[in-house]
Amino acid sequence: MAVITQVNPASGRYFRTRFLWAAAVFLIAAIVLALQPHRAAAAPYAAMVIDSRTGEVLHSRNADTRLHPASLTKMMTLYIAFEAVRNGEISLDTKVKISRNAAAEPPSKLGLRSGQRIAFRYLIRAAAVKSANDAATAIGETLSGSEAAFARRMNRTARALGMSRTTFKNAHGLTASGHLSTARDMTTLGRHLLYDYPEYYNLFSRRTTNAGVREVPNTNRRLLASYRGADGIKTGYTRAAGSNLVASAKRGNERIIATVFGGTSSTARNAKVAELLDLGFRRAPTRAALRKPQRPAYQGTGVVIADAGGSSSEGAAGKTIRVSGQVNTSLRPRTRPGLSESPVLVAALEEALQTPPAKDASPAEAADQTGKIENVQTVSAAGALQGEAIRNSIAVALAEAEAEPAPAARPATATVIAAVQQAPFTGLRPAARPASLADAAASPEPEPVVVTRLSTSGGRYWGVNVGLYTNRYQAEKVLLRTAMSELETLDGSLRKVAKTRRGFEANFLGMSQDQAELACRRLNARNVTCKPIGPS
After folding, report:
1. What's the pLDDT score for residue 123?
2. Torsions phi, psi of 439, nearest 5?
3. Helix count (H) and strand count (E) of the chain?
4. Burial level of 118, CB count in 10 A (0-12/13-18/19+)?
5. Residues carrying an active site annotation
6. Which terminus of the chain is more solvent-facing, meaning fewer CB atoms within 10 Å of its CB: N or C?
7. From CA 109, how far away is CA 95, in angstroms rounded?
8. Which of 60-64, 291-295, 369-373 has the lowest mean pLDDT?
9. Which pTM value belongs to this model?
10. Per 3-state DSSP, what percentage of the chain is helix, strand, and coil (rounded to 5)?
11. Dihedral (Cα; 154, 48, 82, 294), 10-degree rounding
12. Sheet with 57-61: strands ordered across
């Protein structure tokens, strides 16, 4: 007998639904368990806020805990690069050959190729703005020969800056065993960057920059765009470090530096930094005396010369020469010999002895020759008595002048002059006084001329143009700002706004051709419009 079993379709759907729910719960649990180790290993939080003017700490939390700095490391790489340029180790236009090691660095990177040559200035820009790891490694290898040697120099510089809890292992900041720093140390480094090398600080506020091979964006552009007064400094991120940032902002006379380690994301990190900057501006006094940090002693150990001949062309034959050791003593000229060793006196005596008076010389000439010998001998033997002899001769002459009547005053003056001339003399005698002298009253003194600004004459017919503007005020404002930012080459030039049919031209005049071209090169490197103006 067959048994027929009927299956309820509704019951089948019920079991299928239960199975799907169970599978979903299992999948969610697996995901939570997979993420649990990462949550446990989340980077610790640390923060510090200071008044940049005085260095006063306004807020800190875990500021001395040693953590992974990530790309905040590049602040030290850049600090040493600026130091090297200032001390003549290398120039911004030096062509650097990229090594295989630098080209192989992981992102973030500029994409440099092994064997490629690129100007040192572009490596600095890429490391500061793009946070390029290949550029940072290339900087270190160029200055110290290897990344390990550069890390040692980084550590020496850190000690000199007072960063006592920082140890560097590489130039870029990728996670490495023992590569650690603190919020306090990185805040200190950021303050030194600002005050020790202000001429380069504008790099950190650029939203984009030309890095030689391409235009690159700033990794900190969101904070720069969203927070009023923000002008730097450096971001950093690795999985071990979290999102780090050393930021600076200026409002009026106040400047605050805030550092955050261990942000959970770049958005959360920026929000926390903005909160800390606000806290700093609330707590900082409106007025405070500026106390700049002391720049540390130079930590370089050599001179790097690339592309012999100073050529900056791509095809130049390049080589690197390293000179070990620093100049420890200044080569100064020897002290000038004293009177007893003076060759002038010896020569004068020999001349007097070897030139006897002529046979037909008068008694006065013979006496004069004898007097020369006596004068030289007296000086060489007792030079210290010269001042006393002069004073005695002048006193005698003045006494004789007072004893004679008024009409004889003029001869008394001659007597004084003769007495002084007969006194012992230690050096070369001046040329004989002319027989006739022009009366001082016959040639009146010219009117004094006060020069308030350098003239455009005398070979200084060149200048530079820094833009065309719609009104005079805007042009004058740009001239003033440019002059303050480029004092080295524009100091002494004449600021002039020229009105044309197209608008108002902002010009610096009274420069030589070399000065004008140098000023434009430096300004163009900062993305400032500039073109030389030659004589018309």
Report:
1. 97
2. -70, 135
3. 16, 15
4. buried
5. 71, 74, 131
6. N
7. 19
8. 369-373
9. 0.54
10. 45, 15, 40
11. -90
12. 57-61, 46-51, 254-263, 242-251, 230-238
Cβ–Cβ < 8 Å for 461, 509: no
pLDDT digits (tens, 9 = 90+) for 280-290: 999 999 999 99
Could you give the CA distance from residue 267 to residue 236 in angstroms, rounded to a whole number?
13
Residue with tokens 């007998």: 1
How far apart (Å, rounded) are the C-alpha atoms in residues 459 and 126? 39
CA atoms within 13 A on the CB side of 233: 32
Q: Tell me if residue 220 falls in helix, strand or coil.
A: coil
What mean pLDDT comes out for the span 191-217?
Answer: 96
User: Cβ-count burial of 316 within 10 angstroms (0-12 exposed, 13-18 middle, 19+ buried)?
Assistant: middle
Placement of tokens 């001659």 in the chain: 414
CA 199/CA 523 separation, integer angstroms? 11
**212, 401, 521 from 528: Cα distances, Å:** 16, 73, 10
Paired with 257 in beta bridges are: 50, 248
| Dist. CA 3–CA 7, nearest whole Å | 13
Residue 522, number of CB atoms within 10 A of its CB: 18
Place of tokens 């490495």: 176
Q: Which of 168, 153, 163, 159 is nearest to 89 (CA)?
A: 153
475, two tokens: 């042009």
Segment 268-279 mean pLDDT: 96
Largest CA distance in the chain: 176
Q: Is 494 in a helix, a strand, or coil?
A: strand
E strand or H helix at 393: helix 386-403
Of the candidates 106, 80, 74, the one whose C-alpha atom is nearest the C-alpha of residue 246 is: 74
CA distance 280 to 270: 15
Q: Are strands 230-238 and 215-217 parallel, antiparallel or unpaired?
A: unpaired
- What six digits make up the tokens of 248? 């600076």
Sheet holding 494-499, edge to edge: 494-499, 504-511, 462-469, 531-533
Phi/psi of residue 54, each to 5°? -115, -15
Provide the residue type at 457 as one letter: S
- What percent of the chain is modeled with pLDDT above 90? 51
User: Taking Cα atoms as reference points, which of 91, 37, 73, 226 lies closest to residue 151?
Assistant: 73
Q: Which two tokens stand for residue 444?
A: 């009146």
**CA angle centred on 213, ends 485 and 219, rounded to 5°:** 65
Q: Is the pLDDT of residue 450 over 90?
A: no
Q: Residue 469, Cβ neighbours under 10 Å: how many? A: 18
In contact, 285 and 64? CB cutoff 8 Å: no
DSSP string, 74-101: HHHHHHHHHHHHHTTS--TT-EEEPPHH
